[in-house]
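thoughts on these tokens:
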Amino acid sequence: MMTRALRVARHHLNDRTRDLLDKELTAAVCDIELDSDAHEAILAGIGAHALQTHLPGEILQALTFYPATGSHVLAIGNLPQQEFPATPRDGFTDEPAMAVTNALHFGLLQLLSLTPFAVDYENTGRYIRNVAPNPAAAGTTSSWGADSEFSWHTDNPHLPFGGKGVDPRRYVPRYLSFYAVRNDEQVPTEVLAIEEAVAALDETTVQELQSAQFTVGPPASTDETAPLRDTALLEQSYEGTRARFDRGTVTPNTPAATAALDRWVRALDQARSEAFVLRPGDFLIFDNYRVLHRRRAFRPGPADTARWLRRCYAS
């Protein structure tokens, strides 16, 4: 029997813990204006303190050790929900008004020992990306889109992989983290472990995918134009296989690469994945080196209450 490759750590707050956490966070930010970009460190400190005070030991331990456990995904449900404004139609909202949510988000990243960051060629260089339907992105495979399928991909695959002690802005984001504001449409975020697809390939195909015979362009959601040339789609590291991939931006440069890419796409389509239908107050983080994700096309609900996730890169 084949063992499932995707490893997920799941946790859920009880209502009493959620309410105590909400009360402390609300009191901590009610008299000051804190912006997610200008005051990220302050928000992270407030959030981390409240989380350390109220989260049960099991969840605190999961946060402390997640990056070292080899788990692909960490999910925490039933976190506090503040009073939210309308879903941002242009992709941006009043960040100081989101202080409770931002303190939670940044605080969780701090407990995970991760550094949040933004890049200047995407999202106007802001930490938080509001994943929400934006009419200006209609017809594009973007986190601001809805009518086009976002097929299996890793974020920012046109960059080299990074490591410890480097500026994360120059490299593929290691982790993608999400807080769900609303998702009445019940749109799933689907993920699969790279190992799951690689295991279905023959050795020759894997070798071709590990050869520097592909060009990988930037995703449509960025202002970047420079592709990564003569690169591989799969790489080996001490942690295992990692991938850079976005079917819409990958170009094979040789006949062998074309054939290998076709087999890789088929393997992805046949691999077992898991769908996370995020509910308000859910937090999700996954390893962008070792996980591919996608979002199918969907019809958004009313503009003011359409699907809205808050995403932050971290390394």
Observations:
- The two ends are 35 Å apart (CA to CA).
- Residues 79 and 182 are 13 Å apart (CA to CA).
- The first strand starts at residue 8 and ends at 12.
